[in-house]
Structures are given as structure tokens and as C-alpha cells.
Amino acid sequence: MSRITTYANSPSPQLLEKIGATNLTLADAVAEIVANSFDAALDGEPVVVEVTVDGEEICVVDSGAGMSEDVLVEAVKLGVDMADVVKKPPGAKGRFGLGMNTACASIGRWSAVYTRPLGAHSEFRVVFDLAEWERRPNVPEAWTIDIEELDLPTDGPLGDREHGTAVVVKKLRQQEPLAGAVLAKLGEAFKPHLQQGDSILVNGVAATPHNYDFVANSKVPIDIAFGPAHEFQITGWVAIDKQTHNDGDYGFNIYRHGQLVQTWCQEWFAAHLMTSRIIGEVNMDFIGAAIFSQGLQQSDLRRQASAEMKEFLKPVVMASRELSRGSNFRSPDRARQIIDELHDALGLESPERQPSTARTMPSPRDPRTAGRTASTDHRKGGGANTGTRYTTKVRRETVQEVFTQEHRYRSRWAAITAIAAESGMAPETLRRWVRRAGARPASGDQGLSGGGARVTELEREVRQLRRDIETLKASGAFTKAEKLRPGEADRRR
Questions:
Q1: pLDDT tens digit sequence for 126-165
Q2: Phi and psi of 201, rounded to 5°?
Q3: N or C end of the chain: which has fewer CB within 10 A?
């Protein structure tokens, strides 16, 4: 015989004190509270958030829609997803009540939420005193809160606002809170909101995003799509700073739905003084935010995104290393050449490169070059043909060559690099085509053997010879040899 007994499994009231002992900094905790303000924005109205930081209290007041009494009750519950309570805007950030309570408890041991819904004639207030919660008995009935309704006008933090919410935290854990750190954090954390017209004030000073000083033309866009149907997208930018950083402030700031969720991520390249010039921002809305919005949840999707970023950043890492080597950075010509090579590797047009007058005429018999027109860059060090435009047929056949020839190389990337060089295109361009093509072709098309493999190899050699001939023609050497008397060219070799 067996017996099953059901018991209440409610947490201890002391939990509120314990969740306050997190590793959230003051700036991070304030940012978590501010995130809820943007979720409460009224349609068509910019959000204004005013933050006050002093030795006695931290206060966050917004111009959002406010909350009704019923919504407030749910908003302060631990772990409640507010998307199940009210209609949240796309990309909502402050979704969990646990984040709000944790943020307040990590700042101080007393907090209150004041909220005034749009069109109401009163406001609501709820208070959390952690000392009082610690004295509560460990029973389910201990988890109760009191909502106080206050008639307008009041002398509370909302003042004469028609609507909005205020969060006040007292009995601070940090004796001398630094307003400057909060100002800097909010300027970066909500950069997209600030750029679209919302505003945040800290002790009356407007939060603004940080301004960088990059190497000229080194800022390049990031636009990566991956997944079975290319449904996941990474957007943003990366650039190379004029100075190296030994303070750790380099790498990528990662945003999710307009909120900074991870600062200075360096997991996509080997962190080193020579790569400390790399600065960037990316948006990864498709990855769930970890609790407290600090960092992103580790998952297979996150690992796939990391693999994509590592591959994309290879030429950026190389450029950062080259600029940091010797006197390269102090040589304008060498620095410009390094940035040109970066654009080449990414398949981008370099803004400063002078257009070349020489043209390489494609051979109509070459199935790969027949569909494109390429400009040849004769600057020192060579480079890829960034002005090239490729037809669908050329793309398909070049990708097919990667699939059929990669077994001859140590890796797919090695095959892409070699075939791209032979085809006069940037490796990154070809890599993207291969990625978009998805899986390998059917097994019957893979790794030809016997006579079929030999035919493929001979065809490839013929294409290479044709490309060599076109290169000689473009340089004039071939024309000179044609003008010699029969047999004289051989005697002069």
C-alpha cells in the first residue's frame, strides 16, 4: 500500500530578503526598473523617465499608462508573466514580476510602487518592507499585500501627472550611490529608445549613448540570417576603435528588443590586446533573455548564433590585429589598405577606394565568369573585386563547386577560401551563398569518384587557365606576346 498526502509548498516570506542579495549592480537594478517604463508607453507618445539618485532614496518616475488596481496586484507577484495579464507591446522587456522585486530588493530594503492609470481620479500604492516580511510566519497566508487607494491630488512622487508609475526605494544597501554610473548605464542600455525620441533623465541630466572614435571607414554593417528558413536574424554593426583597451570595455553590446542585455561580450573572438579595438552592437531579438535581463539564455539557438558571429568576424579580427601590429596604425596608407581589405573580405564596397580604369573582360565560354562584370583593383597588395555583381547561375555553380570539391580540402572554409580566390570574389561573399544554400546537395551529387571526379577536376583546371589568360590580357603582357613574330616569343622566354 502507498499513501499520497498533498501539502502547500509556498516559499518562505524571507525569500524577498534573500533575492535582494544578488550580484546586480545599482545601475543594472535601476535599468531593470526602467525597462518596465518603456513597456507601459502610450501609443504615439514618447516615454519620459526621470530618475533621482541620492543618499536617501532612488526614485524612478515615468510617463507611461499607469496600472489599474488589478494589474498592480499581478505586477508585483513573483514570477508572473505580465504578457498574460495585459496586452504587452511587441518586444516587451520587463515581463516578469521577479525582475522588479529583485531589482528593488537589491537596491534597498524598503520599496513602494505608486501608479496612476490614464483617466482615473485616484492612484494606487503598494509597499514592501523587507524587515516586516522577515517577521512573517512561514505559512501560505503570509503572502499577502495591501493595496492603498489614494484620492487625487496627492503629494506623492507622481506629482500632478495625469498618468504614470513611480518606484521609490529607501533604506539603501549602497551608502553613496553614484548617479554617474546610473546615467552611463541607462544611456547604453536603452540606446535604441533614446535614438527614436524617448528620454531618460538622471538627476536632471539627459542620458545619451556613448560616442566612439573609430578608424575611418572601419564601421561595417552586420546582417546575418540563419536557420532552416533563414528566420533568425542578427543585425547591427562592428567597427575598429582608434585605441586599444586594457580595461575590458570592448567587444559587443547585445540588445534584445531595444534593451541592452549583455555588455562587452567577447566570446566571438579571442580576447587580446590586439583585438581590443573591436567594438560593436548587435540585436538578437530571437533569443530569450535570462532572468533579470542580464545576459541571454544559453541554448542551441544561442550557440548557432555564436557560430555565425565567429565566422563573420574573422576578417574583422584580422584587421584589428594588423592595425595593432608595428606602425601600421600610424601609417595612413597602410591603415587605409587594411580597411580596404576588410571591405573586400566582407564583400563590401570601400568608400575611399578610387575606381579603377582597367577592366577584366569575362570569357563567354567560362560558365562562372560569363554572368558577371568585374573591376580589377591594381593597388598594392591586390584585393577582391568589390564591384562585382553575380548572376543567379554563377552563384549556383560556384556554390555547387564548393559542395563537390570540399572533400579535397581540410575544411569547408578552406574550400571556400580557395574557390573564392580562383573566382575573384570575397570569401565571405561565397560563404554566405553556401550558408543560404543550406544542406549539401543530394548524396548522388556529392564527392564524385572515378571518371566523374577526373572530369570535374579537368573542368576546374580549364576554368583556371581561362582566368589566367584574361588576367594576362588585362595586364597587357598577352597582347605584347601576340605582336611578336612567330616563334620569337618562345626564343625570348
A1: 999 999 999 999 888 888 999 999 998 888 999 999 999 9
A2: -115, 135
A3: N
Q: Which residues of the chain have pLDDT under 70?
A: 22-23, 80-98, 289-298, 352-391, 438-461, 463-493
Give per-residue pLDDT as tens, 224-254: 988 888 899 999 999 999 999 888 889 999 9
Q: H/E/C letters for each residue in 132-183?
A: HHHCCCCCHHHCCCCEEEEECCCCCCCCCCCCEEEEEEEEECCCCCCHHHHH
Query: How many angstroms separate the most distant Cα atoms in the chain?
Result: 109
Q: Which residues pair with 167 in a beta bridge?
A: 60, 113
Nearest-5° angle of CA 303, CA 305, CA 306? 65
The string of DSSP letters for 430-466 reads HHHHHHHH-SPPPGGGSS--HHHHHHHHHHHHHHHHH
Fold category of 220-333 in CATH: Ribosomal Protein S5; domain 2 (3.30.230)
CATH 1.10.10.10 domain residues, the chain: 355-483
Considering the segment(s) 355-483 as one domain, its CATH architecture is Orthogonal Bundle (1.10)
Q: Where are the CATH 3.30.565.10 domain residues in the chain?
A: 15-206
Architecture of the domain whose range is 15-206: 2-Layer Sandwich (3.30)
Numbered ranges of CATH 3.30.230 in the chain: 220-333
pTM: 0.63
Per the DSSP assignment, residues forming a β-bridge with 181 are: none
